[in-house]
Specification:
Strand order of the largest sheet of chain B: 1-2-3-5-4
Distance between the termini of chain A: 33 Å
Oligomer: heterodimer
Helix content of chain A: 10-25%
Order of helices and strands of chain B: HHEEEHEEEH
Structural class of chain A: alpha+beta
Strand order of the largest sheet of chain A: 1-2-3-4-5-6-7-8-9
Shape of chain A: globular
Radius of gyration of chain A: 19 Å
Number of strands of chain A: 11
Number of helices of chain B: 4
Largest sheet of chain A: 9 strands, mixed, barrel
Structural class of chain B: alpha+beta
Largest interface: A-B, 62 and 59 residues
Largest sheet of chain B: 5 strands, mixed, barrel
Strand content of chain A: 25-35%
């Protein structure tokens, strides 16, 4: 529905951006121009770049995804990012993924929605966390940017001006190991070490997956995260998508501990059921 | 409706619109918010008046246990699922606004299994105040 709303409300500029993104994914030259290049993705950080946050356009504060589902885009802001394109899965992996999507749809239609990790109260991890289902808080401190998502109390730490660890040394986890540096008003982030079970849209990935982000502070109260997923094992090309965020002034983040989950897996159908009468 | 859609994603995210997502994306395997609405029958909403047995302010959901007499005259304990504290805080609920013993009226989308429980659409408190369950859950379609 969000995507439909976005499709409906997307401006011409948004369409052009979508086209550019699709082209970018399919055309190596364009991809290199539009996204972090292979060399930028690598650990080396140019010594000349002072990795300090922009003086005015600080990321510190609380943020909401923009536009919220069904919210009319603000003409004063850049057009909302286009919908996430389908994953460029290699041919041998696509049928299984397609079948899984169909199975989810069928299960929902039967009233037996799948019992997923998220329903189990596991956090969604990277890059899903950046869809910012709930408000998000960002802190800039010396040498580090910290991003927190209210849902499931998720925290990711981005170490500034550090060399990325070798990908084979990255411990698998939910948020991975992130390093970043500022280039003007853009924070470039490289993330490795996402657990195989932590997937975005159910798309499988290998331990070679790398997530690049360009967090671009376009206005003091508006930024975009341009995310590119690379995985030489599962994907034929980089998979790129963007999300936008607006500042939520004065919002105080709430805690979120998933300690009262009444949803459980029906042993017969595998679908989600709600436990009655308490725990 | 706009308000409804606007906050929909916040709690229920993509899971509520697998078909829409499928049309738009060619897929529906997107980040599920806590869970899908597919367990509940929003097309056949039910109104129940009863006495609160417990009110649990917790994540991933807030719950009301309600002893009520249904349209068929039978008295049962119903489990009523609400949104989460964050969503409800933002639309004016308070963690202690419902207490055991309170006489309340709820409109729910019942469980498709026929078990006594459902998704809250609207609650009327003893003092007459009426609250929705946050935009994600959608509005009551009956009075």
């Amino acid at each position: 529905m969000l995507q439909i709303t976005r499709l409906n409300s997307r401006t011409m500029a948004g369409s052009c951006l979508l086209a550019a993104l699709c082209l970018g994914a399919a055309t190596p030259g364009l991809a290199a121009a539009a996204q972090p290049s292979a060399s930028a993705a690598q650990p080396a950080v140019p010594a000349a770049i002072e990795s300090s946050p922009p003086a005015v356009h600080g990321l510190t504060g609380t943020w909401n995804r923009y536009p919220q589902l069904g919210e009319a885009p603000d003409p004063k802001l850049p057009p909302p990012p286009p919908p996430v394109p389908p994953p460029p899965l290699k041919a041998q992996y696509k049928p299984a993924w397609d079948a899984k999507q169909q199975a989810i749809k069928d299960a929902d239609a039967r009233g037996e929605p799948p019992f997923t990790d998220y329903v189990k109260c596991l956090p969604d991890g990277m890059p899903t966390m950046m869809i910012a289902m709930f408000p998000m808080e960002v802190l800039q401190t010396p040498g580090q940017v910290t991003i927190m998502q209210e849902a499931y109390n998720q925290v990711r730490r981005i170490y500034l001006n550090e060399k990325q660890i070798p990908i084979e040394d990255a411990e698998p986890g939910y948020w991975g190991h992130s390093v970043g540096h500022w280039e003007g008003n853009t924070l470039l982030i490289d993330t490795v070490g996402i657990k195989p079970t932590v997937t975005f849209r159910g798309v499988p990935h290998s331990d070679q997956m790398r997530i690049h982000e360009r967090i671009e502070m376009l206005r003091p109260d508006f930024f975009e995260d341009h995310i590119t997923v690379e995985d030489p094992v599962y994907l034929t090309a980089p998979w790129s998508f963007s999300y936008a965020y607006t500042r939520l002034p004065h919002y105080k983040m709430l805690e979120y501990v998933c300690d009262s989950n009444r949803e459980y897996k029906d042993p017969k159908t595998g679908g989600t059921r709600m436990r009655l009468g308490g725990h | 409706m706009r308000q409804s859609i606007r906050a929909w994603r916040r709690t229920w995210g993509w899971s509520v619109a697998p078909l829409c997502a499928a049309i738009a994306l060619g897929s529906s395997g997107v980040a599920l918010a806590h869970h899908s609405f597919a367990m509940f029958d929003s097309a056949h909403q039910v109104k129940l008046a009863g006495t609160v047995k417990s009110f649990e302010w917790s994540n991933p959901h807030v719950y009301i246990e309600l002893n009520a007499t249904g349209a068929d005259g039978s008295n049962k304990d119903y489990t009523v699922e609400c949104a989460n504290p964050g969503i409800l805080d933002r639309i004016g609920w308070k963690f202690n606004m419902i207490k055991p013993g309170d006489k309340i009226t709820v409109i729910i989308a019942p469980l498709k299994t026929g078990e006594p429980g459902g998704l809250l659409k609207q609650v009327t408190l003893p003092d007459g105040r009426v609250f929705a369950n946050g935009a994600p859950a959608g509005k009551a379609s009956i009075k």
